[in-house]
Amino acid sequence: MFPVNENIRNSFAEYGLRKRYKEGDVILDVDSYIRSIPLVTKGTVRVTRTDEEGRELLLYYIRPGETCIMSLTDGLHNDRSKIKAAAEEETEILFLPIEKTAELIKGNPEWLDYILNLYHMRFEELLDIINSIAFKKLDQRLIDFIEKKCEVSESTTLYITHESLANQLGSSRVVISRLLKQLEEQGFIKLGRNKITLCNKSS
């Protein structure tokens, strides 16, 4: 969760702007200038990289009490966004101006510790993604992805199209549909119309 002291509370109250988003709403897009840092207070945000064909690669999720480290880095360096952030579910975000975020880092050791811990966590998650792409077959990446999405949503049922799954895994709908059918035959999942129910863990 966010570190809290009087200075941080005052900054949130005076400069923070709260916004609400519906599932699927784009919060930040690639090449956008970053004027404020998103602090998630409710819901979940999906952070992805997108190629020219619209295919997405999931980088990580931002949960309540967390912020987007890549947005923070780009904002502090006055760079454009290199990622896309979208609401995974109904989400509430407190936006703090980048200059106020920088002031908190300089003047509050606990806030700096919070940022460094998030950097470490995101670095580990990105290493997992690299290892998955480099060393795992697509069928294992697919079941890992389904398990992760179910964990985030706290449900065993995932509502998603085969096309969306393919885009987020950098594959084609035909290949993903075939692999999903194989996973169903193996008893890992049960398929429905635009939904996937997780039956057994792959590990």
Descriptive account of the structure:
- The protein is an alpha+beta fold and 203 residues long.
- It has 2 domains: 129 residues, Jelly Rolls; 62 residues, Arc Repressor Mutant, subunit A (Orthogonal Bundle).
- Helices cover 45% and strands 25% of the residues.
- It has 7 helices and 10 strands.
- Helix 3 packs across helix 4 and helix 6 crosses helix 7.
- The longest helix is centred in the middle third of the chain and has 27 residues.
Keywords:
10 strands; alpha+beta; Jelly Rolls; single chain; 203 residues; Arc Repressor Mutant, subunit A; elongated; 7 helices; 3-stranded antiparallel sheet; 4-stranded antiparallel sheet; 2 domains
- What class would the helix/strand composition place it in? alpha+beta
CATH class of the largest domain equals Mainly Beta
The stretches of 5 or more residues where confidence is low (pLDDT under 50) are none
Which CATH architecture of the largest domain?
A: Sandwich
Strand order of the largest sheet: 2-6-4-5
User: What can be said about the biggest beta sheet?
Assistant: 4 strands, antiparallel
Q: Indicate the overall shape.
A: elongated
Spatial separation of the terminal alpha carbons: 29 Å
Radius of gyration: 18 Å
> What's the pLDDT, averaged over the residues?
89
| CATH homologous superfamily heading of the largest domain | Jelly Rolls
How many structural domains can be distinguished in the coordinates?
A: 2
Portion in beta strands: 15-25%
The helix fraction, in percent, is 40-55%
Number of helices: 7
Total strands: the figure is 10
| Topology pattern, helix = H, strand = E | HEEEEEHEEHHHEHHEE
CATH topology of the largest domain, what is it called?
A: Jelly Rolls
